[in-house]
Design a protein that fits this description.
By secondary structure, this protein is an alpha+beta fold. It has 5 domains: 27-134 and 142-177, Glucose Oxidase, domain 1 (3-Layer(bba) Sandwich); 188-407, Glutaredoxin, CATH 3.40.30; 416-464, no CATH class; 473-517, no CATH class; 520-557, no CATH class. Its main location: membrane.
């Protein structure tokens, strides 16, 4: 009897996620900005519910209520509100740990207007993770509606804050999650540890609902190459002493090596744990085969469709229904079956063994002991399992400025470049700005426009820096058009990637604000011959001569009449043709005589070594 109780405890341990393991407490930063006596940066533990602001930070002022300090009841009953007047910092409710659930404390504070909740530990101990209720199948209907972040702070920090508040001091703090998740590069890798069981209550329902809700965003990210997603499934092994028991035989495969608790915790009725293990294995193999076909995102379609088409309550949670669903997605069920192997064999299953190995944490990542568990860049996510909350966390995993467009939508973040251009440099005339919106805020970086790199500090100055510098806003130099002609003062130097503003020939000025036309005729800079006639044009001039004369610009002179000039040019043309013909004739004679000479020389050389036809026989 004792052995069976121990086994049942193990089953509940896995199902509700309270198994012992190397558990890592995920933390964020808490910075006290006032009063002076408390100014410092502290650690706090992220609650595993609500919406932590991954990648961001929020500022607020701490309020410790005079009544209902454990936040176990509705604050309206005590005439307490955390709502702040317009223009004030939002209120962070400081509440004491004990007497009720962490989620209830947070929910009551949220309803009363708090922007975040600081739970004060009631003992001196290392920080722990505040989790959702899991004992005894407790249902918490308000849990999905918690939208504010919550953190656990140490007893010593909480006592210091309370002391400062009792002295009438204002305690302002920043809760910062910017470094709560690693963000090393332009691709995020994330894992989701889940379960195909759809009859285990709120935990299972929330997992399946999340998969349906997040499917579109997940597939868009993976199709675009922005993310790499891997699904995982938690299993346990049956102790050697209990392999022959009904509990192990009904809930395990491969000789007790891979087990899952009974779906409804009733081993004598309905589906068994082994049925769940087999479907988990099928879903792992579906992802593996789909990934090999270049379409790993089909996993989201399969799991969603299987949940809808093959639910346990309709007695369709089986291989036949799974195969129909798989075929509808264009995947061969035979390949899935080959991947799954034989669950009846008393031997290791490579696929399931890899899942058990992956449960063990390494480095900064703890063991996976709870369902569901989401890991982003090898760090465990804490918070509400909802589309918007998880998408914000994934977006926080990208290196800044490499985020995909979905991370920069109004639903996910605020575009700081829309207000005062984010305090960055901009050229309003050319519609160019150094402000680059990012998920974490904004960066002031000189841009690249039409292949032209701008250089500068990004805040007060950016300047084009290539041989194409003059193509962007004309390099901030003067430019004018008149009478169908356009002139620019921008002069690029490709050799050293610089440019200068210099008025073009025919103009004078600073080259930046203005260039004035030079009147070459009035200034006697052209057309100075006695018979020349000068006419000024914008940016140049035109020279002419009296009738029957033509202007020769090379010598600034007027020569002959038009008819005489034409005859002279005709005579010159005839002479040139005659000279050309003579040259060709001379060249032909030269080639003929040269060839005769060379033939004679060759015959003379060859005659020394062999008889030629013209020599008599010896």
């Amino acid at each position: 009897m004792r052995g069976r109780l121990k086994l049942c405890a193990t089953l509940l341990c896995l199902l509700w996620g309270v198994c012992l393991g190397r558990f890592v407490v995920e933390k964020n930063s808490l910075k006290v900005t006032s009063p002076e006596s408390l100014k410092d940066t502290y650690e706090c533990a992220i609650g595993n519910f609500g919406v932590p602001q991954y990648g961001g930070a929020i500022a607020g002022t701490v309020v410790y209520p005079g009544a209902n300090q454990q936040s176990c009841f509705n604050f309206d009953d005590f005439n307490v509100s955390f709502r702040q007047p317009l223009g004030w910092l939002p209120a962070f409710a400081l509440v004491d740990r004990r007497d009720c659930l962490f989620v209830l404390k947070t929910w009551n504070a949220q309803v009363a207007g708090a922007a975040a909740v600081l739970v004060a530990d009631d003992m001196d101990e290392p920080l722990i993770t505040m989790d959702t209720p899991m004992e005894g199948g407790v249902e918490v209907p308000y849990l999905p509606n918690i939208t504010i972040p919550s953190v656990l702070i140490t007893r010593s920090l909480a006592d210091n804050i309370k002391t400062a508040l009792s002295r009438g001091e204002r305690v302002n703090i920043n809760l910062d999650w910017t470094e709560a998740l690693p963000h090393p590069d332009s691709r995020v890798e994330y894992e989701f540890w889940t379960n195909s069981n759809d009859e285990c209550g709120q935990k299972c329902s929330s997992q399946l609902e999340f998969i349906k809700e997040f499917r579109g965003a997940a597939q868009a990210l993976e199709r675009g190459g922005y993310t790499q997603f891997t699904p995982h499934y938690l299993t346990w092994y049956c102790p050697q002493d209990y392999l022959s028991t009904k509990q192990c035989q009904s809930q395990c495969v491969n000789g007790g090596r891979y087990c899952v608790p009974d779906p409804d915790l009733n081993i004598s009725d309905g589906y068994e744990g082994r049925d769940v293990v087999i479907e988990n294995l099928r879903q792992i193999c579906f992802h593996k085969v789909a990934n090999e076909s270049g379409k790993p995102w089909l996993w989201w379609d399969y799991v969603t469709d299987f949940t809808i088409r093959c639910p346990m309550r309709e007695k369709r949670y089986n291989k036949e229904c799974a195969h129909i669903t798989i075929q509808s997605l264009g995947i061969d069920p035979k390949k899935i079956d080959e991947c799954m192997g034989d669950p009846q064999a008393d031997a290791d299953n490579p696929v399931l063994k890899a899942q058990q190995d992956a449960q063990i944490g390494s480095g900064s990542r703890g063991d996976v002991t709870m369902l569901p568990t989401l890991l982003i860049n090898n760090r465990q996510y804490r918070g509400k399992l909802g589309r918007r909350a998880v998408l914000k966390a994934i977006c926080a995993g990208f290196q800044e400025t490499t985020e995909p467009a979905i991370c920069l939508t109004e639903e996910i973040q605020t575009n700081e470049c829309l207000e005062n251009n984010g305090g960055c440099w901009q050229d309003k005339a050319a519609n160019i700005t150094a402000c680059k919106d990012t998920f974490r805020g904004r960066k002031c970086e000189c841009p690249v426009v039409q292949g032209v790199q701008f250089l500068g500090d990004g805040y007060t100055h950016c300047e084009a820096f290539t041989s194409l510098s003059c193509e962007i806003n004309n390099g901030d130099c003067w430019k004018g058009s008149k009478d169908g002609n356009t002139y620019s003062a921008c002069l690029a130097h490709p050799s050293n990637h610089t440019k200068a503003c210099v008025c073009p020939q025919g103009f004078v000025g600073d080259g930046i604000h203005s260039c004035q036309d030079v009147d070459e005729c009035k200034e006697k800079l052209a057309c100075q011959c006695p018979d020349c006639k000068c006419k000024n044009t914008w940016g140049g001039f035109k020279c002419g001569c009296a009738s029957k004369q033509i202007y020769v610009p090379q010598v600034d002179s007027c020569i002959g009449s038009a008819v005489e000039a034409k005859s002279s040019w005709t005579l010159i043309g005839v002479l040139l043709v005659a000279l050309g013909a003579a040259a060709l004739t001379g060249y032909a004679v030269y080639k003929y005589r040269f060839r005769r000479f060379m033939d004679a020389e060759i015959r003379s050389i060859m005659a020394q070594y062999m008889p030629l036809n013209s020599q008599a026989d010896i």
